[in-house]
Amino acid sequence: MRSLTEVIKDKYEDPGLQEDFTVGGIKVYTPKTGPAISGSGDLQLPPRIVMDDKNISVVGDMKACAEMCRNVRELDLTKNLVTDWCEVFKILDVIPSLQFLNLTSNSLTHTSLPSNCREKTYPHIQTLALNKTGITWMEVAAVLPCFPSLSELHLSMNQFTHVDLPRNFTHPSVSKLFMNNTNLRDWHDISKLGIAFPNLVSMTIIDSDVDHLPDEEVYKEFSKLSVLNISKANLTSWDEIDNFRRFPQLSSLRITGVPFLEDQEPKARRQQLIARLPNIDMLNGSKVTAMEKEDAERAFIRIFMDSENQPARYRELEAVYGKLDPLVDVDLSVSDSVRLLVKFEDKAEYMDIKLYQTVLQFKKLLQNFTGLPCNETHVDYIEMLDGQQIHGATDMRLSHKTLVTYNFNPGDEIHIFRKNDPVS
Q1: What is the Cα–Cα distance from 317 to 320, expressed in whole angstroms?
Q2: What are phi and psi of 117, to 5 degrees?
Q3: What Å distances lie between residue 305 and 237, 328, 330, CA to CA?
């Protein structure tokens, strides 16, 4: 076990060599790099320092640490051996201007929480990461008042099964909350977070056990929540998806890795999500355009126009668009290919492009068109509307990505450039 002060000196102060790695049994050394030594001989650390996995358990010489860290604003102590909350408060005391503190994967013990911790105040801290620390809700309620300006809180991987905050606890400054990989299942429990953090704007609860969104008024607690990431949840029906409309301000939703949704064809899945959730204008990281929304809503009407069990949303949309004529042989699935215009220098050719191939496979096929190896070209996708480019070019650089994920439409274009040429 080591002290923070020792590790800082070892990393930044000694101008000698350090062992970096071993290759074939031979130790490889490189010069130590770090901040400059001032004219007075003082060590001047950069604003952000990373001390992950260094066996740090204590602060050590507090005076020396304070002198070295006077310019530090961000400190990452991931995967160390800090178990005592008293040492955490010492760190905060010796670096009073600290704005970001990451304590992920330090096993903090609740018995070490000092009785006077509520008397301490650290107004500069804006981001606090307590992932996989074993923190309890009692500790959360005890330590957060010390950070009156805290805006971003990370509590992932703490295996919470319930939200047990005191009923009268609130922390208005928190606007972003991350609760990934927990055992929370009941939305009634999760709604307590909306009460505790009344100004919450963004919440991420990926890979948790949320298995039901109830048809009840348990969403109004999140009165300011506009961004929600609830990917890899155990939701089971479209009726539950409909409940995302109940959030008063929700406009951006990321929901991937949900088993019953993954069974849907990608384009049809996105259309249903858009049609059912008129409040959402950013879905899975992509902007929902007015044209896409209208297409999705019309497709939704046609899907359910002959159904005996029409969702409530169907009647709302029918009131907007009226009764639509059914399309002949409506096929809501993505076809296997799409016809696009491919351009390279002074060449242009329409090609029927198979969608269920990777970018790398596609680039290899383009070698015949360009006369160049695929590693000497880069490829851009250009979305077109009425012959005009409507967005910036999309660089198709991810070799493993499948073409179907780009959602090509007839009329779009593929532009190919030599890698050494400037992209126009």
Answers
A1: 5
A2: -65, -30
A3: 20, 14, 13
